[in-house]
Structures are given as C-alpha cells and as structure tokens.
Specification:
alpha/beta; two-stranded antiparallel sheet; 268 residues; 9 strands; single chain; 8 helices; seven-stranded mixed β-sheet; disordered C terminus
Length: 268
Amino acid sequence: MRFAVLPPEYFPGPEWAAAALSSDVIVLADTFPYVRQSLQNRARLRTPTGTSWLTIPVARGGPGRPLTSIRTDESTPWRRTHRRTLRYHYGSAAFGAHYLPEIEAWVYDSDAGRSGTLLGLTVASCRFLLRSLGATARIVASGALPGSPSRLTDVLSTLEPGAVPVLLPGQAERRAPVAPAALVARWSTAPYRQAFDGFSGGCSALDLLMNHGPHAATLLRERMSLERVAPPTAGSGAQGGPGEIPFGHVGGRSGPHDRIDPGDDVRA
C-alpha cells in the first residue's frame, strides 16, 4: 500500500497531484510548521503574459509555527480579489465555466474557507482538486496519527511494515532517512494546451484542470514517473536536526473545519 505525506497547499502543483493520484492513502500534514515563500499559501497561475502568484495574506508571526495556528489576514478583501483573478485568467479556459463556480462553493464560500485559518483554505482547495481529478485515496490528517507527528520522519515511523511512502522531489532530495522502499513522484513539464498562446510551466495543477477537465488526471498519470529513493549517505540529515525535513513544498485543533478526519473519502 502506498502512502503520500503531503502538505496542505493552496491549489497544489502537478507533482503534488501526481503523488496523490499514485497513492492509496494521503496523509495531509496539518501538524507541520508553516514555511514562508512555500506553496502553503500561494499558487502560480497562467496569465496572458506568463505566470503570476495568487497569494493568501497571512497574519504576522507565522513562520515556524504549526500550520493549525496560522490565521489569514482579513484586513484586505483578498477573497474578492482572488475570485476576480481566477475569473479573468480562466474564464475563457475550456473548462473554466464548469470549475469556477465549484471553486467558489468548495473553497471561498465553504465553512472551511471562511474559518479565518490558512489550513481551512488549503485543505478546502486540496479537497476540491482531488475530487475534480477523481482521486480515490483515503485521506488522513497527520494530527490524527499517534503522537500527532510534526516531522516527515516521525510520520513515516508510524507506517505499518511493508507500506511504501510516495515522496515529493523536495522531500527525497533533502536525504531524510526514509524507508528503503520509498518512491519519489516526478512529473514531466512537457507543454500542454493552455488558455493563452504559448506555454508557461510551473503552474498549479489548477491550470491543467481548467484547460483539460477530467482528462487532466490522465495527463498527470501519463507524465508521472515513480523512482526509487537513493538510500541516504552517512551523516546526511536535513537542516534543523538529524534527518529532519523542514516541511513545506517550496517552488492541536483550531476548529472543526481545520482538518480532515481519518477515513474521510474524497469521493464523498
């Protein structure tokens, strides 16, 4: 059985989605720390002139604190700005008219999206993406695991013998002491049809979904590769402690909507 340990991100990228689609269980790392300039609060969109960031403003004093404690900055009407930005850039996309109303209902107008927490919004966007891609994996929050682990290595230690971790490239490249059977999910950045002329890579998986609809899942699977993780060399640990991974894909409970309960199914 394959397990992906994934940070809740704001409309995650293709490699995140590829890892999720290749796994039987997704552990959403809601207990891990918030990392500045990561994808936890921003997504890259395709624009007429290239790409741009769609960023959720957060209250000050966030970096290093648990993701569950990070509040969104409500001093500006950023939700309204995000709605308008998505409509402007994807309103003419092949599947924009279909998915934009769902994004508003699932993300911005949901109880989780209006909870005032970054975690509520990111989990809502992850749920929307997984549901739209037809993912069948079971979702479990890391806070529901024994000891509420806050590091990747601690989450991996809770897996049953024989479980195969599926990692993002950044997780594997930090040379954490992972199980020998661990796999790293990589996604080819080959061009695909976008709403504007030419091709700009590095966009959120939302870009794939808006332009290719249900076929986006097929593209993700066709362009994904799973590679064995090379065993770590002696003394190779991540910064911050032996084998510790500062979690955040770069490129306690706060409320009922801040986490996904164990056994929750994205198909529900």
